[in-house]
Amino acid sequence: MAEFFTMDHQSHQIFGDDKVKMVINTLPPNGGSGTFSYSKNSYFQKRSSSVEESKIEEEIQKKLDVKKLASASNMIIRVADFGCATGPNTFVNAHKVLEAMKHKHKSQCPNTETNPEFHVFFNDLPSNDFNTLFTSLPQDRNFFACGVPGSFYNRLFPQSSIHFAYSTYALHFLSKSPEVVQELNDPAWNKGRIHYTSASEEVVDAYATQFARDAGNFLDARAVELVPGGMLVIVMQGVPNGMPYSHIINGMLFDCMGSILMELSKEGLFDESEVDSFNFPYYAPSPEEMRKVIEKNGRFSIERMELTDPAPWLKSMEQVIPEWILHVRAAMEPIFITQFGNQATHQMFQRLTKQLLDKRHLLQTKYRDKIQLFLVLKKN
Length: 380
Known about the structure:
MeTrfase_capping, transferase, two-stranded antiparallel ribbon
């Protein structure tokens, strides 16, 4: 990792031995409020997560005993958002969750004048742009807010302290890429590619193993932090059982990225070995894979699990390709810049838009796939 690099919209600084300890795969999305910032380019994520809003409200209404949780904690309900990033989406999500819990409490206690207070914890990596996040904190909020820096693959809260937790569009980012896929003599060496899309079975298995380990750590931590009867909601990228990732729209995205980076290496912007040593830390599990991880943990009941269409409002994929790539850039750019530099990364995203526009007719056949995984778990 470079000791220091700067972007026109964001800076990351890494000094001394930290560059050895820091894993480039764990960089957060672009901070600030510039052209390529996540705060300006997270509208698609907002629309996709809103698909699940009514389902979350329904699950809270049916299955979360807000009265019992509040009574046991001095009328203070603690909510955690894991992977909050920097955009306004996190506050929208918090508002919806809190409104649903207030409504449930009111239905359980129609005659009470004592309502619970809410403390919301916004978590992301220490290098996340919390300054931009809290600058946009709603002034008229009806909750107490707190930032919690740290990887959600570790414990972040005291035992049995959180009543409701959610993670939206974050858990598909791995803690790191699988180590074996960049080892020259390993059967899983992923030469010439940057992802498991269209890769060998060994590469796919390595990614699946890394995801199972990471998701297991995530659930192990939440199982300690959540109170009995607490709820955990996850919205993330997924894939139908048995479907190769190359068959869906995001798989095409990663394939195009990899081929463009190989082109740029042949043009001399960087050595081809930089592609061979880079594997994007992103994995979309199937419901079957997620169920196995949950059952192995053994401390949650699955209240709801389904794949949904993340963009039911979208009438044509072709019309939104440039904007889609802006959103992808806002979420992923720092990792690419760390490996390939500013110029090559900018070139990649410029060519990516053109290449996907050229493939728009094929994309048009795939954008209705159900590739958003929605999970509601309850702590035993």
